[in-house]
Amino acid sequence: MSTQTPLLNPVPLRAQFPALQLEINGETAVYLDGPGGTQSPQPVIDAISEALTQGISNHGGPFFTSRYADNLTTQARQAVADLLNAARPEEIAFGQNMTSLTMSFSRALARTWQPDDEIVVTRLDHDANISPWLLAAADRGVTVRWLDFDPTDCALKLETLPALLNEKTRLVAVTYASNAVGSITDVKRAVQMAHAAGALVYVDAVHYTPHGLVDVQDLDCDFLACSVYKYFGPHTGVLYGKYAHMDSLTAYKVRPASNEPPDKWETGTQSFESLAGVAAAVNYIASVGGADGSRRERLVESLAQIKAYEMALSERFLRGATAVPGLKVYGITDIERLAERTPTFAVSLAGYTPAEVAEKLGEQGIFVWDGHYYAIAVMERLGLLDKGGLVRIGFVHYNTFAEVDQVLEALRELGNGR
To answer: pLDDT by residue (tens digit) across 378-414?
Structure first.
């Protein structure tokens, strides 16, 4: 692998994404809705189609199509283990989505809690890493403590975490990166603090995974969840857990299903065709950097190139945003701190509601989100939940500098219009 990260060229990569060829009113659509779900490249589409065409039976049977389902599952599990650098594939469980997996897992983990125990959640998280724990805490009589973020730059106040921890703390639930404002958390530091107090750590990596390298062994986190459709694959959720935890905890599931991990955490029958797409999505990411070596080594190189390129997109957007009348960018705007954020920007435009901005951009074939995007605690903290939230503009590696300029020009025209 190279010692100097080359700047990624998105043009040949974009050619692999059929959806990126969509036209709206004769113009190529601009997908800036990546934080809500990315598009899929042809290899992912082909893998899902091939699985369905081949024919799949439920797993565990003594015949070809059942063994085919077993093989698809094994390949997907190993691929995600490589993506996250899990110690073994049995530490990876699949489910409907991150929210469902977290809701189910919170029920299992809460069985180990006692009244007057405590947990910590953050105001920077997506509600999928807040509400499941609030509900579990209420059921068990557990106290909830909140870790705040600084509203001036939307960075988590990790320096205040030790004051929230004590011998009663059982869990810290923390986001790797905010799906609303893009702030990246120093998860490794948070884990060290939590473990020093004897608490477990559950990481929401849904928003971070398409933008940076995840290494669960280096982080030493106990659990980490993500969603494959946020990194160019199908709608499948992923849960990583240290094997000792996955083995010892009691899962809520029907009889007579296996009590061995990871099967014990996968309720019902998985979508085997989606699992074919899961493996293909990981392989696609590994191919981006054009490196040789093991899949993990190729992923390391690819994600280094992706991060460097996306930081360049972020810089172009932030520099251009200063010339847009009435545009306010929330979160980290310091060009020197681009490594501390993903290329996801929450903005407001004077004279317009977030919904009006999203609708007007949508009419031009520029796809962005408005509202709270389930980052309810973020919008409450910023005082914007009852004001329509914000407009979210999110870039991924298949976006171009021209698309950054296009959305800035569209916002500039709107800003000059009122």
So the answer is: 999 999 999 999 999 999 999 999 999 999 999 999 9
Question: Going by C-beta distance under 8 Å and a sequence separation of 6 or more, which residues neighbour residue 244?
Answer: none
- Same domain, yes or no: 34 and 50: no
Please state whether beta strands 23-24 and 27-28 pair in parallel, antiparallel, or not at all (unpaired).
antiparallel
Q: What is the per-residue pLDDT across 204-260, written as a single tens digit (0 to 9) for each?
A: 999 999 999 999 999 999 999 999 999 999 999 999 999 999 999 999 888 867 788
Displacement of CA 375 from its chain's centroid (Å):
13
d(CA 155, CA 181): 9
Q: Count each helix (H run) and each strand (E run) in the chain, helices first.
A: 14, 17
Query: SS in 3 state form for 55-109?
Result: CCCCCCCCCHHHHHHHHHHHHHHHHHHHHHCCCCHHHEEEECCHHHHHHHHHHHH
Cβ(261)–Cβ(86) under 8 Å?
no
21 and 95 fall within a common domain: no
Q: Please indicate, yes or no, whether residues 386 and 413 belong to a single structural domain of this protein.
A: yes
**18 and 88 share one domain:** no
CA separation for the pair 154, 201 (Å, rounded): 21
